[in-house]
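Morning. Coffee machine broken again, so started the prediction first thing and wrote up yesterday's gels while waiting. Chain of 151 residues, entered below exactly as on the submission form.
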Amino acid sequence: MEGMLRETETAAQALRLHLQMVPAASPADLDAAFATMTREHADAVVLLPSPMLYGQHKRIVELAAKSRLPAIYAAREFVEDGGLISYGASLPNLFRRVATYVDKILKGAKPADLPVEQPTQLELIVNLRTAKELGLVIPREFLLSADEVIE
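Came back before lunch.
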């Protein structure tokens, strides 16, 4: 998570964007986090991946819609439930990779001897319905680069 945060900060600086971190350590913090973003007049939300937040994806999408904040997420499930954009690893592909590791461990491999892998395939999903609700026009070139467009 620290690495992602540093990379996000570096990208924001390069684009001359003001990045304000609004932490949510638990589901109980979500309402206050979105209230802070609204009060501070945030233009958008970048939700970094978190196991705690993934379980709250429907609620987060609802809070972003209620706050009228465009948001980008790391998992497609957010966009399938009405979020604007996701860009991240395909969870089904990750689960398939995990299955191969489980198979190797069950056949006697030591987990410490198995290599750590990074996702090799990322997917970009765009929800045009949500874009329209937010009054956003997504450029055609961007839509052409998407792996999936939800209309």
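Residues 2-14+27-89+123-150 form a domain with the Rossmann fold fold (CATH 3.40.50.2300). Going to sketch it on the whiteboard this afternoon.
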